[in-house]
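I'll show a record.
***
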Amino acid sequence: LRLFIILKPEFKGQISEQNIIDWVAKRISAYKKIHEVGFVDTIPKSGSSKTLQRELIEQEKKKLGLK
């Protein structure tokens, strides 16, 4: 499970992926734990304010150099 986060400017460089994973792990059930964290500037939304998961996946593929 991958979690995408928009960090406020004052927290950039202060919070790591592991900080987020540990914080979430303390608050949710084991089967819901996240494995990866992705920091993004914006989360793409549709006209009806739904998250466009496909676009997030495409952004990550571009970052990793995948097709």
Q: What stands out?
A: The mean pLDDT is 91. The chain has one domain: 2-64. The two ends are 21 Å apart (CA to CA).
